UniProtKB/TrEMBL annotation:
PROSITE patterns: TPR (PS50005). It comes from Panthera pardus. The lineage of its organism: Eukaryota, Metazoa, Chordata, Craniata, Vertebrata. This is Intraflagellar transport protein 88 homolog. One of its GO terms (biological process) is intraciliary transport. SMART domains: TPR (SM00028).
């Protein structure tokens, strides 16, 4: 019979339908309908309902989105350092948020207002006010948040208000708000409570209430010890002078756990390439950098605390350092013990006890290479300062051999070679120091000095300009650049750099006199006078400056103004007769003959064998008509006769010791050459000396003659004015001896 048809009737019973509708088979298919399981014959779906952008709900949603974006932009601008833009964005967010609240109140009930958005807008605005140091506006905004009972946990913002009062140095209000915040924070938030208590302790230190600060820090160290609290506790005990408590606090500080991994974690235990790659990846990741920073901070606190308490916890600072060293050796900071010993040596240096410093540093000769190199570097520096270059070189070699990559050791070695005059070799050591540490400014400065000694001025200038880019306001570097330009015969650039130097050290008399010298060489006498006068104001004992000023007034026919400068020079050098002769000459040239006569008489009493003084006494007495003229003339003749006899003896001695007439003539020629040289010393300030007045000529006749500015008297001593040296502390030779040395503490 076979299987009956679907839906057929057999024996009066209809066969049940099978479940085939899900596959698209229906009864209509039997009647010839098309196969359409997805219902595509019904046509496309109706379009989506258009969004009504004018509806109040949509406007509120868009405005809320805009407020959130403004808050985010404000925070991003603050993190980028653009505080002004951050504040503008925060204000804009606040304005739009108030508009949003009004619109919500019109559409929905007040219960539907987004309090979290209002809180974040106000909090961000207060933070931006505080960042821009607008403390009054920040406090007002924080008060709005704190007083609103609808904001949960708003009380903790009183910590921020306390911080603002602390910045304003209103310490009593700062403590008040810290305590209010502490009362509103539950005990489960242990870390925040400890941080607030730490703020309270710091504020007590600023107000000088050390006992209250000690209570706060002791409580913190008993609950959750940390480095900052331990260090502040030591400071508080130091302020009250409690030695025993200082020791206990130092031991507590040493015992604070660092909670960082050991360095062994970053050493590969096997040759597994996968493990090595992982270790290489985490060797310098952010977590590792944070661990290094925490360890460096701990070492800094411990070293600073030890240096602070060591001189006061025992009878002497040496015993105190020994106690600190023993405590450190028994802790997890064993490597700091050697650094403390080196600090002990440096303390000896500050107390001018060089022998003890040397002995302390010599103890490190048998220690590990790093410590040995540091100690040897300092020993080399000490011996270099004492001009014991052999010992300095020996310890510099020891430092270099212990640590070839120590830039301080290489710099000191270069200094010892520089002192011996081997500039090429010194330059090699400085270059190696720079290769090891490009920020070693001492090596860069010294290599510039070395090139200057080798007359490689372009390379020297390049070094000093690089150094100027690093040390913008270094007076030494500015002077060296100016000096190199002067050696390169570029006075305009030299003057420009010296002007920068004066802006850094406006009271430096040597730099001012150098500027005066450069302007003088350029022919600008007025500018030269200005800077020489300023130099004289700050340091009125520089003979070269005094001489130039006196010569300037003589050249400008103001002899009476030159008198004060030459009188000061005679006070500085009372055994030099030339200054007193200059004073007398100024009196004479200004027409005050009586004062000039009295001055010459006083000079004659002090220097009875001075021929020039007697000659002018004779001339003055003759012109005035005094009776003493005969007495002075007799003395003058006697002195001239004695001088002639001495010269004859010298000539006869030369003639007797000479072999031939040619040698005698050569000797006579040299004597005449010397006389010519001596007579030319008076030619200065571009003014030439004309013929001297005769003995029988009237005295006034000399007033019409052209007189050299630095020339005192036609028959007086000749003055030789050397170039004004730069100030000693910025002189290149001084730097070769002093500034070449490296810092006491090597990197």
């Amino acid at each position: 019979m076979g299987r009956p048809m679907t839906g057929a009737i057999q024996d009066g019973v209809t066969r049940p339908m099978t479940a085939v509708r899900a596959a698209g088979f229906t009864k209509a298919a039997v009647r010839g309908s098309a196969f359409d399981p997805l219902g595509q014959s019904r046509g496309p779906a109706p379009p989506l309902e258009a969004k009504n952008e004018d509806s109040p709900e949509e406007k509120i949603r868009q405005l809320e989105k805009k407020v959130n974006e403004l808050v985010e932009e404000s925070c991003i601008a603050n993190s980028c350092g653009d505080l002004k833009l951050a504040l503008e964005k925060a204000k804009d967010a606040g304005r739009k948020e108030r508009i949003l609240v009004r619109q919500r109140e019109q559409v929905t009930t007040p219960e539907n207002i987004n309090l979290d958005l209002t809180y974040s807008v106000l909090f961000n605005l207060a933070s931006q006010y505080s960042a821009n140091e607008m403390y009054a506006e920040a406090l007002n905004t924080y008060q709005v948040i704190v007083k609103n009972k609808m904001f949960s946990n708003a009380g903790r913002l009183k910590v921020n208000m306390g911080n603002i009062y602390l910045k304003q140095r209103n310490y009593s209000k700062a403590i008040k708000f810290y305590r209010m915040a502490l009362d509103q924070i539950p005990s489960v938030h242990k870390e925040m409570r400890i941080k607030i208590m730490q703020n309270i302790g710091v504020t007590f230190i600023k107000t000088g209430q050390y006992s209250d600060a000690i209570n706060s820090f002791e409580h913190i160290m008993s609950l959750a010890p940390n480095l900052k609290a331990g260090f502040n506790l030591i400071l508080s005990y130091f302020a009250v002078g409690d030695r025993d408590k200082m020791k206990k606090a130092f031991q507590k500080l040493i015992a604070v756990p660092l909670e960082i991994d050991e360095d062994d974690k970053y050493i590969s235990p096997s040759d597994d390439p996968h493990t090595n790659l992982v270790i290489e990846a985490i060797k310098n990741d952010h977590l590792r950098q944070m661990e290094r920073e925490r360890k460096a901070m701990a070492e800094k606190y411990i070293m600073t605390a030890a240096k602070l308490i060591a001189p006061v916890i025992e009878t002497s600072f040496a015993v105190g350092y020994d106690w600190c060293v023993e405590v450190v050796k028994a802790s997890q900071y064993v490597e700091l013990a050697n650094d403390l010993e080196i600090n002990k040596a440096i303390t000896y240096l500050r107390q001018k006890d060089f022998n003890q410093a040397v002995e302390t540093l010599k103890m490190f000769e048998k220690k590990d290479s790093r410590v040995k190199s540091a100690a040897a570097t300092n020993l080399s520096f000490l011996y270099y300062l004492e001009n014991e270059f052999a010992q300095a070189s020996s310890y510099a070699d020891l430092a270099v051999n212990s640590d070839r990559y120590n830039p301080s050791a290489l710099t000191n070695k270069g200094n010892t070679v520089f002192a011996n005059g081997d500039y090429e070799k010194a330059a090699e050591f400085y270059k190696e120091a720079l290769r090891n540490d490009s920020s070693c400014t001492e090596a860069l400065y010294n290599i510039g000095l070395t090139y200057k000694r080798l007359n490689r001025l372009d390379e020297a200038l390049d070094c000093f300009l690089k150094l100027h880019a690093i040390l913008r306001n270094s007076a030494q570097v500015l002077y060296q650049i100016a000096n190199v330009y002067e050696l390169m015969e570029d006075p305009n650039q030299a003057i420009e750099w010296l002007m920068q130097l004066i802006s850094v050290v406006p009271t430096d008399s040597r730099a001012l006199s150098k500027l005066g010298e450069l302007y003088d060489s350029e022919g600008d006498k007025s500018q030269a006078f200005q800077y020489y006068y300023e130099s004289y104001r700050y340091f009125p004992s520089n003979i070269e400056v005094i001489e130039w000023l006196g010569a300037y007034y003589i050249d400008t026919q103001f002899c009476e103004k030159a008198i004060q400068y030459f009188e000061r020079a005679s006070l500085i050098q009372p055994t030099q007769v030339k200054w007193q002769l200059m004073v007398a000459s100024c009196f004479r040239r200004s027409g005050n003959y009586q004062k000039a006569l009295d001055t010459y008489k006083d000079i004659h009493r002090k220097f009875p064998e001075n021929v020039e003084c007697l000659r002018f006494l004779v001339r003055l007495c003759t012109d005035i008509g005094l009776k003493e003229v005969q007495e002075y003339a007799t003395k003058l003749k006697r002195l001239e006769k004695m001088k002639e006899i001495r010269e004859q003896r010298v000539r006869s001695g030369r003639d007797g010791s000479g072999g031939s007439r040619s040698r005698r003539e050569g000797s006579a020629g040299s004597d005449s050459g010397q006389n010519c040289s001596a007579s030319s010393k008076g030619e200065r300030l571009s003014v030439k000396l004309r013929a001297l007045p005769g003995t029988n000529e009237p005295y006034e006749s000399s007033s019409n003659k052209e007189i050299d500015a630095s020339y005192v008297d036609p028959l007086g001593p000749q003055i030789e004015r050397p170039k004004t040296a730069a100030k000693k502390r910025i002189d290149e030779d001084d730097f070769a001896d002093e500034e070449l040395g490296d810092d006491l503490l090597p990197e």
